[in-house]
Design a protein that fits this description.
The protein is mostly beta strands. The chain is about 15% helix and about 60% strand. The protein has 2 helices and 8 strands; from the N terminus they run ααββββββββ. The longest helix has 22 residues. The protein starts with 20 loop residues before the first helix and ends with a strand.
Length: about 210
């Protein structure tokens, strides 16, 4: 069985998971700084004066479920950006992964009125918590050796690149609906070894 959060599937078991604590702490600090900067931009008067929306996201850059903020740099179409937070998980024969990621993207809307074609590209960075079952050698009562399962818990920093290609409806009452495909590519040994065309669906409100 494998859940929708398959972008985080480990390609190999870690050999020494206890050595990543300082790296994760440093990268988590950097991620907090990046999020604070993005929120400052999103809440600035310049961006607040443009067309913007908040929405609930399923799959795509959110992986399983998430929320995001989207705005145009000028007017109600053309170039804009989105920033959000998403949660996902993955389950395999010898691992279980849960994680929270922060997708950040630049996007473009083409069209007039309430119907738009959208395209965008970005990166999601996050912290993932792994539970991996390894085999350890044990000595049996008769003096022979055997193997027994050993549970190892680790914290991993991971990211993936993604793109959005789809349709966006912005109704007169403020309702926002999105659907499309989100090709993605994992980075590093804790991502996918090839791209995946991942669907996405969003429902939100424009203001």
């Amino acid at each position: 069985m494998y859940a929708p959060g398959r972008r985080w599937r480990p390609q190999e078991k870690p050999t020494n998971p206890s050595n990543n604590h300082l790296t994760i702490k440093k990268e988590y600090f950097i991620m907090k700084k990046v999020i604070a900067l993005l929120l400052a931009i999103a809440l600035s008067p310049v961006v607040m004066a443009q067309d913007r929306n908040v929405r609930l996201d399923l799959f795509g850059a959110a992986n399983v479920v998430g929320a995001s903020y989207d705005a145009r740099f000028k007017g109600d179409s053309g170039l804009g950006f989105a920033v959000g937070v998403g949660y996902g998980f993955g389950i395999g024969n010898w691992y279980e992964i849960h994680g929270v990621g922060v997708p950040v993207e630049i996007n473009y809307l083409a069209g007039r009125g309430k119907h738009h074609f959208e395209i965008g590209a970005g990166m999601s960075n996050g912290v993932y918590f792994d539970k991996i079952t390894e085999s350890k050698t044990v000595t049996l009562p008769d003096g022979s050796t055997g193997t027994a399962p050993k549970e190892v818990r680790t914290t991993q920093w991971g990211n993936f690149l993604y793109a959005n290609v789809g349709y966006r409806l912005r109704a007169e009452n403020g309702l926002v609906f999105r659907c499309g495909l989100s090709p993605s590519y994992g980075i590093g040994k804790y991502g996918l070894s090839k791209s995946v065309f991942y669907p996405y669906l969003s429902l939100g409100y424009s203001f």
